[in-house]
Amino acid sequence: RALRDTLVLRFRALIELNLRRHPPLGFFAAQLKVTPDHLSRSCRSVTGLSALDLLHERLLLEARRLLAYTDAPVADVARDLGFDDPSYFSRFFARRAGCAPQDWRAALQTGQVSPP
């Protein structure tokens, strides 16, 4: 259990260092000297989420922060988070958050959602 906890902590630290670069899961696994399957199983046993879900949740949190605390257009938020295509960012955000980035920002301003 302790080894898995340590692996997940190291994975989360690597996420922070590479958040805006979007490396594939294999990159993280290689850095941690484990297979992607092992990394994902370890993450799931410790957090209940797969490695990819942890990565995407962290990216979504950062997107919410930028949308909540800046006036930057969605396209600028997308670029700041390393997305080359703002429409891909919008699809990613909508899939994870349940609504488009601009709709989430509007809901935040009317108090329908809480800031991150």
TL;DR?
It contains seven helices and no strands. The chain is mainly α.
Structural commentary:
The structure is a single chain. Helix content is 72%, strand content 0%. Helix 1 crosses helix 3. The model has no long low-confidence stretch (mean pLDDT 96). It has helices at residues 2-18, 25-32, 36-47, 51-69, 74-80, 86-97, 101-109. The protein is elongated, with a radius of gyration of 15 Å. It is built from 7 helices and no strands. It is mainly α and 116 residues long.
How many runs of DSSP E, i.e. beta strands? 0
Shape: elongated
Mean pLDDT, to the nearest integer, reads: 96
Q: Tell me the strand percentage band.
A: under 5%
| Rg result | 15 Å
Helix content: over 70%
> What is the CA–CA distance across the termini?
30 Å
Number of helices: 7
Structural class: mainly alpha
Which segments are poorly predicted (pLDDT under 50) over 5 or more consecutive residues? none
Order of helices and strands: HHHHHHH
Give the key terms:
single chain, 116 residues, mainly alpha, elongated
Describe the protein's topology:
Blueprint: H1 2-18, H2 25-32, H3 36-47, H4 51-69, H5 74-80, H6 86-97, H7 101-109
